[in-house]
Specification:
- It is a single chain.
- This protein has 440 residues and is α/β, with parallel strands linked by helices.
- The chain folds into two domains: 111 residues, Urease, subunit C, domain 1, CATH 2.30.40.10; 307 residues, TIM Barrel (Alpha-Beta Barrel), CATH 3.20.20.140.
- Strands 1, 2, 3, 4, 5, 16, 17 and 18 form an eight-stranded mixed sheet that branches. Strands 9-10-13-14-15 form a five-stranded parallel sheet.
- Helix 5 packs across helix 8, helix 8 packs parallel to helix 9 and helix 9 runs parallel beside helix 11.
- The chain is globular, with a radius of gyration of 21 Å.
């Protein structure tokens, strides 16, 4: 006979119902039985199978969901494996992640999709949802067998950091995706404008003598994709928006009723191009860190609902690769284990959002974008939960990261807000209090 798992006397954060106050949650066999504000009812207090979770002073929210991570397996296991990526996700409070297709071989076949799902099941620490490639080999020349990939378990389509330049081909790909009811995630960057650029085009790129990527590379690509979404009726998701003009394009598209959603990363919210001044490759990202002017627009976009979600774009690399000079090091920042803390510190402690709004951006809205169950604390829902300490200040350290990557710009920096424990289907996949020692 299964026991009841009970959380009581803690702060309940449920964006779906607008709950923010002291309350309780009871779950059994992976499902929520009850979650309300107020004291725990006597029927649960006296229950012979009750098992209480010690969480005094903590907040309880629906577990986070990330729309864009890179787990590198197969082919680049020295950077990350599905197992290590899932461990990092659990430590960051995530129950579900959407994995990009840029492995080797890439996820452009049903067999590749099934491989990712099988490896994720072996880990068991979070649910992994593979995103299939739009074109074979991510080469932008021939579209994949969309139906086969969806049947195998693909939840959407993306060529990751490669923008499909052929507009006619992209139109047909969007038509197939629309017919199948899946989302297209298109990285907005015209490579004929970005070329060999390594950081944002502006005063700092000139001062540092580094080849630059103009905002126009993102804006022009996003504008084309929005027009193709208008033509085909597909759900277009624009990832890691970085500049003011793109926010304005998306705001206009939504006002016109187009099926366009978008996300933003914690590193674009927390850092700007000036942070590249020491040539630290942990700040080399794609899209690049933009200006303070752009960053202000990103925060405004989150506040007014133009930007739908926060996604970390977890992109691990080996320390050796990131130790190259700035022009030659790979793009990418890791963030699964620090995303909540970084976003909470920037947007709640030093910004305009409430904890409830932040949870919505990291849990409820991502679930809605992918049209999947989750992001809510109500009777009958799956017990995907995260325990949070909203007051604790802590300093991320390389030695305690579960990811194989170390390219994290928040290492050594104090952040307020921390994940205490994660539950997936009522099963604890991470508990900070039981894993105090470094893993590596």
């Amino acid at each position: 006979m299964s026991s009841l798992l009970i959380f009581a006397g803690l702060r309940i954060l449920d964006p779906h119902r607008g709950l923010d106050g002291e309350g309780y949650l009871v779950c059994e066999e992976g499902r929520i039985l009850a979650c309300e504000l107020g004291p725990l009812p006597q029927e649960y207090c006296d229950h012979e199978r009750a098992r209480y979770v010690e969480a005094k002073g903590a907040a309880l929210a629906p577990a986070f969901r990330d729309l864009r991570v890179h787990f590198r397996e197969p082919g680049y296991e020295d950077r990350e494996t599905i197992e290590s990526g899932c461990a990092a996700a659990a430590a960051g409070g995530y129950s579900d992640v959407w994995v990009m297709p840029n492995s080797r071989p890439c996820a452009d076949s049903a067999a590749a999709i099934r491989f990712v799902l099988d490896r994720a099941r072996e880990s068991g620490l979070c649910r992994v949802h593979p995103v299939g490639a739009i074109t074979k080999g991510l080469e932008g020349r021939e579209m994949v067998e969309f139906g086969d990939l969806v049947d195998a378990g693909a939840v959407g389509f993306s060529d990751d950091l490669r923008w499909v330049q052929d507009g006619g081909l992209m139109r047909h790909c969007m038509e197939y995706a629309a017919m199948l009811g899946t989302v297209v995630i298109s990285h907005p960057e015209d490579p004929t404008l970005s070329r060999e650029g390594v950081m944002h085009e502006g005063a700092w790129s000139t001062r540092l003598g580094l080849a630059a990527i103009p905002a126009a590379a993102e804006v022009s690509a996003c504008a084309r994709d929005i027009e193709l979404a208008r033509l085909t009726g597909v759900h277009l998701h624009v990832p890691h928006v970085s500049c003011r003009e793109t926010v304005e394009l998306i705001r206009s598209a939504k006002a016109q009723g187009l099926g366009v959603t978008a996300d933003i990363t914690p590193h674009h919210l927390d850092f700007v191009d000036a942070d590249c001044r020491d040539y630290d490759t942990c700040f080399k990202a794609k899209p690049p860190l933009r200006s303070t002017f752009d960053q202000e627009a990103l925060v405004e976009g989150l506040v007014d609902g133009t930007l739908d979600a926060i996604a970390c774009d977890h992109a691990p690399h080996t320390p050796t690769d990131k130790e190259r000079t700035f022009p030659h090091a790979p793009f990418g920042v890791i963030g699964l284990e620090t995303s909540f803390a970084a976003a909470h510190d920037r947007l709640v402690c030093r910004g305009p959002l409430s904890p409830l709004q932040l949870v919505e951006l990291m849990s409820t809205r991502p679930a809605a974008i992918m049209e999947q169950e989750g992001g809510r604390l109500e009777a009958g829902a799956t017990a995907d939960l995260v325990l949070l300490d909203l007051e604790e200040s802590w300093v991320p350290q390389s030695s305690t990261l579960r990811s194989r990557g170390r390219n994290c710009p928040w290492l050594g920096r104090s952040l307020q807000g921390r994940v205490i424990a994660t539950y997936v289907g009522g099963r604890c996949t991470f508990d900070l209090r039981r894993e105090p020692q470094p893993l590596f």
